């Protein structure tokens, strides 16, 4: 039985790896399907301390990974599908293997949320996307819409101006949720138009997106906007499905922590860090901070 498993390879997982490896716990980190987490889908990270001029998301994650490996974190490119409580520990199963651990840090992050309207699923990859960094390139000199009013939506819209001839931000209220600096950049950008108080009701297309139908909530009228792409940026959901009720969740579905120590969960020996347990801050730096806390909590718990 090994001491510590870390599930997830975003800022929380890798930071937990750095601290746990330096504490000689010989952690094994399971990368999962989306190695590197959400920062792999980002361009410039301007608010991570230590990088005066900013750094690209994937490059930042590469440095996290290299630092975790330097101290001996073993990284496995496997996805853990189930965790079972056994005597004095936990059995983790991936598609091909089983592992036994005394403790586990869950740092499985969060994934993009979808609108759930007609046409969205059918046209994913054919003009519907949740990642401008991945797909923006395909919309050179085209018209695209970004749905949402948070920092993600602002970031996606600004990024898309590098390719698209026009970016339309569609938001359901008359005010953005995003930070002031991001709002100002969007509102002052000549390529960006904002449609307020409107929801997307349907995405049209046959093989590729051709238009969206929106509902103007103030005047209660439906409009059709012709465009080539729709980027959904309406937030994220924590990746907890594989836990299948193992630990208690809060009312929003995030892992509940703070039972005995800051990152402890309802199950002794299981700790949670990063976006999977944080519906409030959700920053790379806060995720990294909680990854550090989880490793220290796990180390002390293993010592008890
Ligand atoms: P968010 O802040 O939760 O914003 C989600 C946005 O989508 C909100 O404007 C929300 O509208 C809208 N929305 C949610 N469900 C919707 C639906 N079904 N239909 C239409 N609109 C819907 O999520 P986020 O933008 O992904 O940001 C998450 C966190 O990451 C935040 O803390 C943010 O500050 C941070 N972040 C930071 C940066 C940065 O600093 N550069 C970049 C990205 C993200 P309402 O406003 O009406 O609720």
What is the helix content? 10-25%
How many β-strands, per DSSP? 19
Structural class: alpha/beta
Poorly predicted segments? none
Major sheet description: 7 strands, mixed
Count of helical stretches = 6
Strand content: 25-35%
Order of secondary-structure elements: EHEEEHEEEEEEHEHEHEEEEEEEH
Bound molecules: NADP nicotinamide-adenine-dinucleotide phosphate
User: Distance N terminus to C terminus?
Assistant: 17 Å
Give the overall average pLDDT.
Answer: 96
Q: What is the rounded Rg?
A: 21 Å
From the spread of the alpha carbons, the general shape counts as elongated
Q: Please, could you describe this protein's structure?
A:
- The model has no long low-confidence stretch (mean pLDDT 96).
- With 304 residues, the chain is an alpha/beta fold.
- The chain has six helices and 19 strands.
- Strands 1, 2, 5, 6, 7, 8 and 19 form a seven-stranded mixed sheet that branches. It has a five-stranded parallel sheet with strand order 10-17-11-12-13, covered by helices on one side.
- The chain has helices at residues 11-22, 57-70, 132-135, 151-160, 180-187, 284-303, and strands at residues 2-7, 28-30, 44-45, 55-56, 74-76, 82-86, 89-93, 98-106, 110-112, 128-129, 143-147, 166-170, 192-195, 198-205, 209-216, 221-226, 229-232, 236-238, 270-272.
- The structure holds NADP nicotinamide-adenine-dinucleotide phosphate.
Summarize the structure.
The chain is α/β, with parallel strands linked by helices and 304 residues long. It contains 6 helices and 19 strands.
């Amino acid at each position: 039985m090994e001491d510590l498993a870390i599930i997830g390879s975003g800022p929380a997982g890798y930071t937990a790896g750095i601290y746990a490896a330096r504490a000689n716990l010989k952690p094994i980190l399971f990368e999962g399907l989306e190695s590197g987490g959400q920062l792999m889908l980002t361009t410039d990270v301007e608010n991570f301390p230590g990088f005066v001029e900013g750094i690209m998301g994937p490059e930042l994650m590469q440095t996290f990974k290299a630092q975790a490996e330097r101290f001996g974190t073993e990284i496995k490119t496997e996805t853990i599908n189930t965790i079972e409580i056994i005597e004095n520990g936990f059995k983790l199963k991936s598609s091909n293997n089983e592992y036994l651990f005394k403790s586990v840090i869950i740092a499985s992050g969060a994934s993009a949320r979808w609108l759930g309207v007609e046409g969205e699923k059918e046209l994913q990859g054919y003009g519907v996307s949740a990642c401008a960094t991945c797909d923006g390139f395909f919309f050179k000199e085209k018209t695209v819409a970004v749905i949402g009013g948070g920092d993600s939506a602002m970031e996606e819209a600004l990024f898309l101006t590098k390719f698209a001839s026009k970016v339309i931000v569609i938001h359901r209220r008359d005010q953005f949720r995003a930070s002031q600096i991001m709002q100002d950049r969007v509102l002052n950008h000549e390529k960006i138009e904002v449609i307020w108080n409107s929801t997307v009701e349907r995405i049209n297309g046959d093989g590729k997106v051709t238009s969206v139908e929106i509902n103007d909530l103030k005047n209660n009228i439906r409009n059709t906007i012709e465009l080539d792409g729709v980027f959904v940026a309406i937030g994220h959901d924590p990746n907890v499905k594989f836990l299948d009720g193992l630990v208690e969740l809060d009312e929003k579905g995030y892992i509940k922590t703070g039972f005995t120590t800051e990152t402890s969960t309802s199950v002794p020996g299981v700790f949670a860090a990063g976006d999977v347990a944080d519906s409030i801050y959700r920053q790379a730096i806060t995720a990294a901070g909680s990854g550090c806390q989880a490793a220290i909590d796990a180390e002390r718990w293993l010592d008890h």
